[in-house]
Amino acid sequence: MTVDRYGRRSDVAWGWRLLDVLIALRRRLGVDRFEPYRPYLMLAPALALVTLLAGGIVYLVYLSFHSFDTFLLRQGPWSLEQYRRLVEPPSGAFNLQTLQRTLVISVLVTVGAVTAGLPVAYFIVRTRSRTMRIVTLVLLLVPFLMGEVVRAFGWALVLGSNGLVAWVLSWFGNDSGGILGTPLAVWIGMMQVSIPLATLLILPALTRIDPDLERAAATMGAPPRRVWRHVVTPLARPGIAGAAAVVFLLSVAEYDMPAILGLGRLPFVANVIRSIYTLQNNLYLGSAFSLVLMAISTVFVVAAVAAGGIRRLRDGGGDG
Amino acid sequence: MTDHRPTPRPDAVSRRQFIRLGTLAGVSVPVLSLVAAACGETTPATTVAAAAGDGVPAKPDKIVVRTWGDPWRSTYAEGPAASFTAKTGIPVEFDVTGFSEIQAKVQQAVAAGQRPPVDAVLTIEERAFAAKAQGISVPMDLDLLTNASQLSSVGLPADGSTNYVSVSTYSQPLVYAPDRVELPDDLSWEEIWDPKYEGRLFVTDTPSSLMLPVAKMLGLDVTTDDLTPVWDKIAELRPNIAALGDEEEFLSGIESGEFDIGITLAATALEAEGLAWVTPREGSTVSTEAFWIPINLPPETTYWTQVFINETLAAENQSLIAANLGEVPTNLEATLPDFMKEDPATFPFTEEDLAKYALVFPVEVGARNNDAWQAAYTAAIQG
Questions:
Q1: Alpha-carbon distance B348 to B332, whole Å?
Q2: B204 & B94 share domain
């Protein structure tokens, strides 16, 4: 090993030389001029992604306000035809029913997932056993390791006519043959991923809650139920609102579970949009339905997030 | 108001035209080459010119055929594609893009002035008819489709055009699990409305399987009459419906016991063990699968694709399609498997069978009204 005139060892000299080259290059290019803009430049990928998504939505809006000949596949003039078709016979009542089903089951999934996820997240945060914490976290991630279609068919085996549920029901004299094709089956299938997702999203909010607050409440005589109601839940509200928003948004866009566990009889909006596109050949009508669902979902999510945020401010604007 | 008048057809590329084109190219290319050489440039000889010598177009590197996944792809690969490649040396590739998507992709490519992603499309006849109306298919040359002379009446378009050719037909009878339900041999479609079948029935997610039988039961003509009574009658079937979907969903559901009876392709019954089928006395819907060729292809590709399609119409390949896919050949010279010969009501083959048993799907009216019919059916069956 030798040392050069700057005191640098020969075995690392190539690294320093590369650094020198890069510094020289940076000076020559005058990169420092852009320093004030660096935060904006770092935002560029995110902005590009958002622009791309926004562009897609603008395109959907454009399509939805045009008439379309599905036989000749020709776009017509600006028109409200697609929105009229959504509400008028023969599909109006069916579309409304589908929208209601999508929203109701999605709300039930959201409520169920957050309700089940909150105590699990609390357990992960408060348990003193590192092993239990790791095991629980790993178990939460298991459903994400397989595709949704695989999960749906797995549930179809459990909930179907020859499955575990039908077997258990037969003990009680119910030979109806499982619950496949019912809203309950769809709800159960959707809960499998929604609970872990809600748990993981609530986890950071619970982590930030100082355990001394709970101890203080208990010291003052509050039973665990009141500690949960008046300390843990309010402080976890931002996390709960975020989890609810994400779970709800994913639920309203659900496709596979209603298709497979609903046996095609309980379509969600996504299933109907697919049918409109592939069987009716009408991307324009599908765009209109997509935008209606997006608008309603946005209202739901904004309401959920606002509820979480307002309560948080009212409680003192703390960080949880 | 939508204008549904036929669009002008693109020119067919017949063999004669191709020879003329090739001759012209054969003359012009050397001249252009001389001019280019005089200018100090080189011009590569075109494949068209190279082929002009013997009157047969140059061979493309391959042709790409859109079809359904297995068993369609493997059957077409084993039969017509293999014999076509053996005779011509041109390999055939298969593309299994969905039938709606491929129609949209071809149209987008044509609108952009680009070459379509596939050279031939195998699809349902109404989509092939729509492709013709959309002006994205070429009329085929009957001089190249030598086997077309052996086709039954459903082989070529009823309007006398040659923009597509049907290779096989399929019917949609009642398919059932005989160990769980007993259906009489002579029954009416009215049978499946019986409350004893509550929650035991599977139906397709497209209207053609049910609307034609129901219209016949009600004495209506789907091409001229108001179909409101048809949709109302179909809606009355809802309590009996356990599931709806496509063929895969039928197979998985009937095997797992979710339902006992289904309206689906007769061919689907052959894919599972222990299923039986029956065609009610009113007959069942018969539709065809057809090939069409997109415009904007190089002339030699269009030429050889027609040669390939002719190969699919050959009696031996049609016999293979019948045996493997359970679809009825359109070539009257083809050999039917025994199960088809024994059941002409479900597998109508001859003109007499077609006239007696088949409720042939009205392609033109069906294609023009697909959107409205599908919407009405979906609302009736799922509402």
A1: 11
A2: no
